[in-house]
Write a structure and sequence with these properties.
The chain has 274 residues and is mainly α. 46% of the residues lie in helices and 8% in strands.
Length: 274
């Protein structure tokens, strides 16, 4: 009881012991709370309601007060208190949420590439460079989040199948928010689904020795081993045992990149095409 009382009341300790205890408490409080999470439930609910097979109801997000509240919560977040997986999930969700916000801010309903910044002849800055992302107390562009934060801090190539640039040839937007607890399974599922999608992910022509791959592997080749051989071996991870897998592993192929469709990943446009 006496020891408990001294620990509860530092004033009863000798000065040196008291200083040591206070320093220890301060150090513990300064450590990142590895078990701490960020609440993405509002975004999760919106994604479940308004994203179907990767197609987004942008008008529904524009009219949802809970979406505005979620964006404000991202701005106030203290990511230093999150563990690594939770931080990565935070930035993936922030990227995807602010991509939706960017589309709605400009009332764009055809293609994200129609959004240009600047005036007159200076209207050459891409939409990914617009400083729209307000998160963790700072303002970033989508490019900043992807290249300066996610790619540099986490070195996780599967993020390229989770970050969605609002286009039909992008990986489909997941119908749920990313969370630290489920992150690895979510990223693995995204990679598997996208890479086995022959229309936009990859397909292998064994007879002619050609690997058709998403432009993502061209733009971010260094993240997938750098060079066609590395790309092939990365894609092979997600193929079942087959002649296609053996060609990918063996490296005796040429890569042909698939045409990238920048049409907006809109549920409205999807219904028109259907």
């Amino acid at each position: 009881m006496l020891l408990e009382a001294r620990l509860m009341r530092p004033s009863l300790l000798k000065p040196a012991a008291r200083q040591g205890l206070l320093a220890l408490v301060a150090a513990v409080l300064a450590l990142p709370a590895q078990g701490q999470t960020f609440d993405h439930s509002a975004f999760d609910e919106l994604l479940k309601k308004h994203v179907v097979k990767g197609m987004v109801d942008y008008d529904a997000f524009a009219n949802a007060g809970t979406f505005k509240d979620y964006l404000q919560s991202l701005e106030r977040a203290d990511v230093s208190r999150l563990g690594e997986k939770e931080r990565l999930a935070f930035w993936i969700d922030a990227y995807n949420a602010y991509t939706i916000a960017l589309i709605n801010e400009h009332e764009e309903r055809a293609s994200i590439r129609n959004i240009k910044q600047g005036v007159g002849l200076v209207r050459a800055r891409s939409p990914w460079k617009e400083p729209i992302v307000k998160a963790a107390g700072k303002t970033y562009s989508l490019d900043d989040v992807e290249n300066e934060i996610i790619r540099k801090q986490f070195r996780e190539p599967r993020i390229h199948f989770a970050l969605v640039g609002a286009a039909m040839s992008c990986p489909p937007l997941r119908g749920e928010a990313y969370t630290g607890a489920k992150l690895d399974a979510q990223l693995e599922d995204q990679a598997h689904s996208f890479l086995l999608d022959s229309a936009r992910g990859s397909r292998v022509d064994v007879q002619n020795g050609v690997v058709y791959a998403s432009r993502i592997f061209d733009w971010y080749k260094e993240d997938f081993g750098g060079g066609d051989t590395g790309v092939g071996r990365y894609i092979a991870r997600y193929y079942p045992e087959s002649p296609e897998k053996q060609l990918l592993i063996g490296g005796r192929f040429r890569v042909s990149y698939l045409e990238y469709d920048w049409t907006l990943n809109s549920r409205y446009l999807a219904r028109l095409k259907g």
